[in-house]
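Changelog note: in this version the structure field was regenerated for every chain. One regenerated record is shown below for reference.
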Amino acid sequence: MEPGPHAEEMQAAIGIDGDGLRRLLDGDAAGGAARLREAAERYRASWELAPPRSYGRLIGMLKAAVIAGDASEAAAYAREQVGEADSPPSHYVLAMAALVTGDDQSARAAAAGMRAGSPAFGRAADAIEALADADAGRYAIAVREIVTDFEGRDEHLTGVPIADTALMLERLAESRGLAAHPASALLP
């Protein structure tokens, strides 16, 4: 990671995020949520110090906020910061923010823009589109594919083996009555 205060904030955010996720896996929902809220704040601080287009920080902020159950403010902030999406990561930020705010049309449009990215972006786009379409069957298949991908990874960004993308999507699905509850050692 490049040196500077933004990199230090990013590393701190990742460490706090990992601690929050570890707590969730250990059954400490309240402690995990508190740490994830803190991680979201640190990801935001890192974004504000980082070079333009460092969208991974906004993705981390939204993911932590959604999993913690407190994403409305983070979603509004992320949408304002991205403005017009022009890359798969910026489309991902807008898709997540749109799902948080219930703007399914924007979520679908942003998910389409994610497809120019890696296969992981495509899997997440499948799940986002299914949630926006209120299609429980398609969503269950998509989130299971995400979990399977995480189960096959040797390394995880936070150092904690957890399917955090699936966990975030499940939180969004719960509020819509579409949660699939995939079974995995990588989910609380």
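Spot check on this record: The longest helix spans residues 5-25. The chain is about 70% helix and 0% strand.
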